[in-house]
Specification:
- The protein is an alpha/beta fold.
- It has one domain: 3-Layer(aba) Sandwich (Rossmann fold).
- Helix content is 36%, strand content 18%.
- The protein is built from 10 helices and 8 strands.
- It has an 8-stranded mixed sheet with strand order 3-2-1-4-5-6-7-8, with helices on both faces.
- It is globular, with a radius of gyration of 17 Å.
Amino acid sequence: MNDDQLLRYSRHILVEEIGIEAQQGFLDAHALIIGAGGLGAPAAMYLAASGVGKITLVDEDSVDLTNLQRQIVHATHSVGRTKVESAKETLNALNPDIEVFAVNARADASWLDANVPGKHVVLDCSDNFATRHAINAACVAHGMPLVSGAALCFDGQISTFDFRSADSPCYACLFPPNQAFEEVACSTMGVFAPTVGIIGAMQAAEALRVIGGFGDTLAGRLMMLDSLRMEWNTMKIARQHDCAVCGARSR
């Protein structure tokens, strides 16, 4: 680290559990964020501010006026631009010390299979089950730590699936891909803006703990937030031996 970096990240370096070693780990890391919306916005901003050296943002959508109530990485003048280019501009202004790669595309199975390898952590900030399951399958296949978040109305949830451990459950252990569900979206149900901010910020914290190797992540636990009553609940989750996605992994 040069003198400017030592000053910029000094408040991290002063924290005993982080120190200069973990901060250098942030600078050397490459995070992949799927989704540049309500969750991806705060997650990307905190990772950029914290000095994660490379951030790849993937989203196929453009900024709409209705996004601005919660997607804080975008501004009014960004309406009509692609979300990834808008977010890249914000992140580069926040921290010119990092590299941001903007990918205006859908993160489908083939794209994920080609681009998950070589990263240090993946953050699922998407808004639909199909994409979440595709991300999970790619992370399982490549042994990549995955931080998964979701939010709707006043409800949020977050967990970390660390496939560097043979005992780690996966997203499909919790939400089987063949399970019947009714998918709802913010566009029809709405979302309380700070809820996505809380979950997105926690995703950044989880990603930094994964990269830096300090503290305890949410691996094996699902945290659920009711932001109407400001109550948290935690549920332990275990790997399912008959899971269609990770069941064949060696233990």
